[in-house]
Structures are given as C-alpha cells and as structure tokens.
C-alpha cells in the first residue's frame, strides 16, 4: 500500500482526556511487549548504537513505553550489556514509566518534563529512537525531527510495528477490539479509570480502533522514509538505510536508521 492519508487521530489532540489517552497507551504497551513486536529490529538498533558510539537509547514519543523492555533485553542479548533507555514524550506518562523503571532496576529511566521530538534538549544524550509514533508527523515535521538529530550529530532510528498492508486495516477493526476487551483486566499497573473507560464507557476501545486504522494509513513506506532522510541531510553527512524486517510468524516492522558517516 503506497497510499498515505494524514487523517484525524484523537490521541494527537491536546484536549483529548488524559485518562483515555493513558488507557490507550497502556493497551498498546501491553500488546507490543507481549507480541515482541520490535524484537526483529534489535540488530539494526544495536548496529546504530555501535556506529554512533552509544550505549544509551533516547526514546522520543514514547507513549506508555510499549516494547521498550523487550527491546532492551534484545539489545543486551545482541552484545550490548550496558544498554540503557530514557523515555520521553510531549505528553509524559510517569505512572507507566515508573513501572518500567522498577521492572528493569533503573535500566529504563525517563524524563518527567515534556520533550518536543522536533527540538530535543541538548542535555538529553543518546541514539534517538521513535517506536510506533513517526506516522503522527506530517512530512515537514517528520523531516524536522530527522534534521534535529542530524544537526545534533545523533544517531536516529524510526520504527513502525506494521508493514502497511490492507490486511493490517482489517485486523485493526476486527481482532484489535476483541483483544483489547480480553486483556484490559490484566494490564499493569492497575487502573480503575482504564476499566471504567473500557467496559462502562467504552471510549478506549472506540478511539483505539479509529486511531489504529488511521495510524496505518499515515505510515511512511521505506522509500518515503529515505526521501525524508535525504532532505533532512542534504550534505549527505549520514549513512541511511530503510526497509522492512519480518517476524518468523508473519508481521513486519518498517524502519529507517541513520548515523554520522564519520562514525
């Protein structure tokens, strides 16, 4: 599917209720972690860290931190035992992040203040990574995110946990709502508001279905990711690569990674 439509997504809106946004992020974190969505890109991320001389991943647009613990474990298994992650977001989720910090004995930390991915504070070091969120940015903003990393001399990677196929749209409106209703009582840390807005006032399922379908339509395929990267790096200072990697059981991850050539 080469079509890209930048439709309205509820979780992007500053007025969107925080408990509903948090519940949606908690569900995505649970699913991404337990399906090991981003494990196939661990070798790419590990190479980016090595090429840029980093052991620290600075995760931008982290949401609820979905998949981060799994990625950290995969990085350590790939020969980076000192790997650490700092979570950041324009809308921080400290409750979910504290849980991840406790689960990993501090190997996953977080920045409690809002962080704009287009203007990352220089005091926040590390290889910049965006999981399941790059589609939120229109082309000009997506290019600006990559340019900010280039201007700072930081390695950068963007990863989307889908392959942009029509089948993905079908799954988003059929399998996703059933899975959400089944797993919400088991998501931790426990939240009464999450159950309220799932079962009594089903805002979380409804908005998750819509935003999930829109996310697939917004995704950039690999050739568009490379085009954005080259515009963000007109002098060709960076090595860029983009493509898709597939799980053994079928699903794909779309990716773009880049690091300074001199690294």
List keywords for this structure.
263 residues, alpha/beta, 7-stranded mixed beta sheet, 44% helix, globular
What does this protein look like?
The chain is α/β, with parallel strands linked by helices and 263 residues long. It contains nine helices and seven strands; from the N terminus they run ααβαβαββαβααααββ. The protein has helices at 18-34, 42-51, 68-77, 94-103, 139-152, 166-183, 192-200, 203-218, 222-232, and strands at residues 56-60, 84-87, 108-110, 127-131, 156-160, 238-246, 252-260. It has a seven-stranded mixed sheet, sandwiched between helices.
List the helices and strands and how they pair.
Elements: H1 18-34, H2 42-51, E1 56-60, H3 68-77, E2 84-87, H4 94-103, E3 108-110, E4 127-131, H5 139-152, E5 156-160, H6 166-183, H7 192-200, H8 203-218, H9 222-232, E6 238-246, E7 252-260
Parallel strand pairs: 1-2, 1-4, 2-3, 4-5
Antiparallel strand pairs: 5-7, 6-7
**Element order, helices and strands?**
HHEHEHEEHEHHHHEE
Q: What integer is the average pLDDT?
A: 91
With helices defined by DSSP (H or I, 4 residues minimum), what is the helix count?
A: 9
- Going across the major beta sheet, what is the strand order? 3-2-1-4-5-7-6
Helicity level, as a percent range?
A: 40-55%
Shape: globular
Kindly provide the radius of gyration, computed on alpha-carbon positions and rounded to a whole number of angstroms: 17 Å
**Quaternary structure type:** single chain
Main beta-sheet strand count, sense and barrel state:
7 strands, mixed
Low-confidence stretches: none
Supply the helix-strand structural class.
alpha/beta
Classify the beta-strand content into a percent band.
15-25%
C-alpha termini separation: 35 Å
Question: Can you count the beta strands?
Answer: 7
């Amino acid at each position: 599917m080469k079509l890209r439509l930048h439709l309205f997504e509820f979780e992007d809106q500053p007025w969107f209720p925080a408990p509903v946004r948090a519940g949606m992020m908690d569900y995505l974190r649970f699913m991404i972690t337990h399906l090991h969505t981003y494990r196939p890109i661990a070798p790419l991320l590990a190479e980016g860290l090595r090429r840029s001389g980093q052991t620290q991943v600075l995760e931008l647009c982290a949401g609820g931190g979905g998949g981060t613990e799994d990625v950290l474990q995969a990085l350590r298994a790939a020969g980076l035992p000192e790997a650490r992650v700092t979570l950041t977001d324009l809308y921080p989720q400290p409750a979910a992040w504290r849980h991840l910090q406790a689960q990993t004995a501090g190997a996953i930390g977080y920045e409690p203040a809002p962080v704009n991915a287009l203007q990352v504070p220089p005091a926040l070091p590390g290889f910049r990574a965006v999981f399941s969120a790059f589609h939120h940015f229109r082309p000009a903003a997506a290019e600006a995110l990559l340019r900010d990393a280039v201007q700072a001399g930081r390695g950068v990677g963007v990863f989307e946990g889908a392959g942009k196929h029509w089948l993905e749209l079908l799954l988003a409106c059929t399998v996703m709502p059933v899975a959400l209703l089944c797993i919400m009582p088991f998501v931790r840390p426990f939240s009464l508001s999450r159950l309220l807005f799932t079962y009594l006032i089903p805002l979380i399922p409804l908005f998750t279905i819509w935003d999930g379908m829109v996310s697939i339509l917004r995704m950039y395929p690999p050739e568009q990711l490379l085009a954005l990267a080259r515009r963000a790096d007109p002098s060709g200072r960076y090595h860029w690569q983009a493509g898709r990697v597939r799980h053994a059981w079928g699903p794909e991850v779309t990716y773009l990674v880049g690091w300074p050539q001199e690294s």
